[in-house]
Amino acid sequence: MTLEQIIDVTGEFTHLYELVMVHIEKSGGFAGPDAYFKTVQPLLDLLEVEIRIRYRPGMTQQQMKLIAQDWIDQQIRECGN
């Protein structure tokens, strides 16, 4: 399953978008597509690593959702500090 599919299945797209917006605001606002992708790609890479580390065979969609949700919440909290 790809990261995109996991985000789709878990319904965490809006939550992930919220994290992206927090990072963009923290970096001074939207500065064009290149800056956007330089912000988004590392976040997606980190989320993918988190899922790979915590995933176990047989996990339910709800368990996958909690992995993504917890990681996104943690990242949002860290941006606020």
Overview of this structure, please?
Helix 2 packs parallel to helix 4 and helix 3 packs across helix 4. This protein starts with a helix and ends with a helix. 79% of the residues lie in helices and 0% in strands. The mean pLDDT is 91. The protein is built from 4 helices and no strands. With 81 residues, it is mainly alpha-helical.
Key terms for this structure?
single chain; mainly alpha
Quickly describe the structure.
This protein is mainly α.
The N- and C-terminal alpha carbons lie at a distance of 33 Å
Oligomeric state of the chains present here: single chain
Instruction: Report Rg.
Output: 13 Å
* DSSP helical segment count: 4
| Beta strand count | 0
Detail the poorly predicted runs: none
Beta content: under 5%
Shape: elongated
What is the H/E string? Answer: HHHH
Helix content: over 70%
* Major sheet summary line: none
The secondary structure category is: mainly alpha
Helices and strands, with pairings:
Blueprint: H1 3-10, H2 13-26, H3 33-54, H4 61-80
Helix pairs in contact: 1-4, 2-4, 3-4
